[in-house]
C-alpha cells in the first residue's frame, strides 16, 4: 500500500519567525513556546479540498469517520483521491458514507471542476492569492474562508489574513485586547503589522488557543 508523502514545511518559516519576533511583542513571547512545530502541508489539492467539504459544520471525530468511509467508497488511498473516481460514484453511495445530500453535491461539483479543467492547480504556484481564491469560490461548498485555509495549509502562502476566522478573532482578542471583543477592522489593523508573514502569525495565534496544530 502506498504511504502518504512526508508533510512539507515552508522554507520561509525561520525568517518569518525572526521578522515577527522583532516586530510584535506578543509573537516574541509566543513563538518560542512551540519549539520546532510549524505549518505542514500534506495530501494533494483535490483531496485537501474534499476533506474541507466533508468536515464542514461537524466535529473533527465525526468528519474523520465520514472521510474514512468516503475514501473507502472511492477506492483510493485516503491521502490522494482521484476526481474521476469520485464522479463514478452514485449519490446513494456518497450518502451511504454518511454525507448529507448537500455535501454529496458539493463533492461531485468539486470533482467536476478538477476533472474538466475549470481549476488550474498546476498554475497556482505562479498565480496571485486572489486569483486562486476566485477559482475556488466558484466551486459549490467552497467560500472565501475555505479558500484562505487552502492557501495557508496546502499552498503554504506566507501572507494570508483570514478575517472571517473566528479563532483568529478570538486569539487577537485574548492576546492584544485583554479578552475584549474585536472588530474585523481592529483585527486587520493588528494583522497589517504582521505583513509579509501574516499566515505565520495567524498560525501562532491559533496555537495560543489550541496548542495542537490543525491538520488539513
Automatic annotation (TrEMBL):
Spell out the reaction equation it catalyses.
Hydrolysis of alkylated DNA, releasing 3-methyladenine, 3-methylguanine, 7-methylguanine and 7-methyladenine
- Cite the SMART domains for this sequence: ENDO3c
Q: Name one Pfam family in it.
A: HhH-GPD
Q: Where is the HhH-GPD domain?
A: 54-210
Q: Which UniProt keywords apply?
A: DNA damage, DNA repair
* GO CC terms of this entry: protein-DNA complex
**InterPro entries of this UniProt entry?**
Alkylbase_DNA_Glycosylase/TA, DNA_glycosylase, HhH-GPD_domain
Record-linked PANTHER family: DNA-3-METHYLADENINE GLYCOSYLASE
* Record family assignment: Belongs to the alkylbase DNA glycosidase AlkA family.
What protein does this entry describe?
Answer: DNA-3-methyladenine glycosylase II
